[in-house]
Amino acid sequence: MIQDIAQQETFFHSRLFKGLSKEDMQEVAGFTKSKRLKAGSYLFRQHSKATHAYTLISGALMLERTSQSGRRQVIDFSHPGNFIGITNNDEFEFSVYCLRDAHLQCYVRNNFLELADRNPVLKNNIRRTGSNVLTHTLDQLFALGQKKAHERVCYLLHELSLRQSGTDRETIDLFMNRQDIADYLGLTIETVSRAFSKLKKDGIIAVDSPHRVRIVEHEQLDTLASAR
Amino acid sequence: MIQDIAQQETFFHSRLFKGLSKEDMQEVAGFTKSKRLKAGSYLFRQHSKATHAYTLISGALMLERTSQSGRRQVIDFSHPGNFIGITNNDEFEFSVYCLRDAHLQCYVRNNFLELADRNPVLKNNIRRTGSNVLTHTLDQLFALGQKKAHERVCYLLHELSLRQSGTDRETIDLFMNRQDIADYLGLTIETVSRAFSKLKKDGIIAVDSPHRVRIVEHEQLDTLASAR
DNA sequence: CGCGTTGTTGACGAGTATCAACTATTGTGG
DNA sequence: CCACAATAGTTGATACTCGTCAACAACGCG
């Protein structure tokens, strides 16, 4: 119950709707549906028609892209509050996989865009969200092109630390597995594992369990994350 | 003179203005200026105000991004016909450097966006162009994350082959230097050089001069370009 | 023609992938 | 709730790729 209120807050305070009036929000509510998604299923697939857009209320998602030869590149991980499905194309350019049982707000794309046409605030918010996708991808590009394995892992931990909800920036909940991390950072699972071991040995992080990591030396982690 | 006609053609047949009426084009012309840029100078810098947008008529540009630590990631190379400066943000997320004396069409951003608001065709074209930037970046991400040095070089050659104007898909004009290629592919100049040598030895390309390469085995090149 | 810049090649070492064995964790049925 | 199996993660040995440093070659320009 307390969690449900927190979830609603996440919805209304999402960057996407920041600055919208009560009336606007009611119109949004008119073409919005709630959706539950089980971990292990897909929200939508690469190349499917982009009929809807989504806000993640709770749970965790993963954006991935598969090449012709079947190899996967993980593009991003989604936290509550994130907006998914803003695409300039009519088709999605990636698949969205559910890592943890999720609750989403689901908007009809055409209604959404139409409202955005009339509402400069929303329009601007959407534009900025889209821009952030590109900025993020460019940062990732830099990480893959320039950084070493353990620096890439720091980059991920730094990102997760900033984005996860709640006030605790130290304890990081790794809701993805090692293969997902590897495919995100352009590494193998073994190298990712070794990177964690190295960071642990150097006293920068503490690994409580494979999916629960604490940042011990935040500054050193940040330095490594933005190295090169 | 003949070249000038060709350049005009490039402007009017640009994907950006595809499907626009004569009247629309006249309005576009109203807030459009011609601009010449010397090789070695910047069209605009990262973080500068995005007041204008551009179409490249002739010459060659390079999109790059610099990290806090001063390291450079080349994002893309621009050919005649390409649209530059579509950004969701108010600031540019990258710098644009002129590799070869360029002729550009230069639009006032606000007028441009305002017309786009009224004109669904143009709006759609802009949206698609923006989408292509993301798609391209995602492809590059995949290349950096998954491919080997010589495969990345093939990926670049394949791209250049597809995009360069003219009918000759075999002879490739490398208007950037080895450092630019290295920073685009996340490699060092030595590795890039060795990759060219290997492809030459394997009979896939012929290197007429450092900036002039012929594709001998197109199929093999494509296979390597899309490997993994 | 000499000089600076750009590109190539070689030797070597650091870093990452691969293969394999092992350990920890999670899930399932009794 | 436990035992066991299946899955996920870690560690070690080794090979290969790529980066680094250094020398050399080719090109462009005054």
From TrEMBL, chains A, B:
Record-level GO cellular component terms: cytosol
One Gene Ontology molecular-function label: DNA-binding transcription factor activity
Alphabetic keyword roster: DNA-binding, Transcription, Transcription regulation
Coiled coil segments of this chain: none
Record domain Cyclic nucleotide-binding: where: 16-85
Pfam assignment, any one: HTH_Crp_2
PROSITE patterns registered for this protein in UniProt: CNMP_BINDING_3 (PS50042), HTH_CRP_2 (PS51063)
Keyword Transcription appears in the UniProt entry: yes
HTH crp-type domain residues: 147-219
PANTHER family assigned: CRP FAMILY TRANSCRIPTIONAL REGULATORY PROTEIN, LISTERIOLYSIN REGULATORY PROTEIN
Protein name (database record): Crp/Fnr family transcriptional regulator
Organism field: Pseudomaricurvus hydrocarbonicus
